[in-house]
Amino acid sequence: MTLLEVSGVSVTFxxxxxxxNLSIAIGExxxxxxxxxxxxxxxxxxxxxxxxxxxxxxxxxxxxxxxDLVKMSESQIAKAGIGxxxxxxxxxxxxxxxxxxxxxxxxxxxxFAVLAWKxxxxxxxxxxxxxxxxxxxxxxxxxxxxxxxxxxQWLEIGMLLAQDPRxxxxxxxxxxxxxxxxxxxxxxxxRAAQTRAVVVIEHDMEFIRRLDCRVTVLHExxxxxxxSLDHVTKNQQVIDVYLGR
Length: 245
Ligand SMILES: Nc1ncnc2c1ncn2[C@@H]1O[C@H](COP(=O)(O)OP(=O)(O)OP(=O)(O)O)[C@@H](O)[C@H]1O
Ligand SMILES: [Mg+2]
Description:
By secondary structure, the chain is an alpha/beta fold. It has one domain (2-243): Rossmann fold, CATH 3.40.50.300. Helix content is 38%, strand content 26%. It has ten helices and ten strands. It has helices at residues 42-49, 74-79, 97-108, 111-115, 121-134, 149-162, 179-192, 205-211, 229-234, 236-243; strands at residues 2-13, 16-27, 30-35, 57-62, 67-68, 82-85, 167-171, 197-201, 214-219, 222-227. Strands 6-7-8-3-9-10 form a six-stranded mixed beta sheet, sandwiched between helices. Strands 2-1-4-5 form a four-stranded antiparallel beta sheet, with helices on one face. Strand 9 and strand 10 form a beta hairpin. Helix 3 (97-108) packs across helix 5 (121-134), helix 3 (97-108) runs parallel beside helix 6 and helix 5 crosses helix 6 (149-162). The protein is globular, with a radius of gyration of 18 Å. The chain starts with a strand and ends with a helix. 41% of the residues are buried. The model has no long low-confidence stretch (mean pLDDT 94). Bound molecules: adenosine-5'-triphosphate and magnesium ion (MG). Adenosine-5'-triphosphate (ATP) is lined by residues 13, 18, 36, 38-44.
């Protein structure tokens, strides 16, 4: 099933067309990689889906009912099931991994639930599952501030998964990670994408190869090529504008 359908979207910043008649469809479940040169519009694509940036033209249709996200606020879009991971991890450094995951779970229940919130046995079970899913079981009682950069990224992914998004958007997760951390990150994104849509922007080709998924190449705000990594890396235009630099 098509979960997200971006169609004919254009965005202009001060006369510069950053997104140009962009059309992309993402299925559910699906893992999708988005690559392309600096300034291609990859991050802006995510900004449009999350409602941070408003397109001048085009539609962003979501779910079974094909509701247009362009007409919704950022918080309505998040509530509809779209989670986004930014480059810089935003975890609560003074709190433990367990407390961070716990807060993410309670946020899911909304602002009123937070007031009278107490972790139930089911919540504690879910926290353990989430920690296992992102590989932080051994770190549950550690301060988030004491985690490595990669572990903080995984914690943040765990906190997003706690909200149970239907679509998870991840912008350059491998930046600043060790090779072992990168490997773990591809594993956890692949696992997360078994039950939901996950879109990953990344420049690291080794990382993209390991994701082993459909790849969309953006260039000057449009799709230049799409298909398997082998397919797009054979494309002469892709070599000219991105790979051959
Ligand atoms: N809020 C904004 N105001 C003005 N220009 C912007 C804004 N956001 C993005 N741009 C411009 O739009 C173009 C696309 O930027 P974007 O950040 O989407 O590229 P990207 O593909 O994510 O690049 P990178 O690989 O470097 O992260 C760039 O030329 C950028 O300078
Ligand atoms: Mg970017």
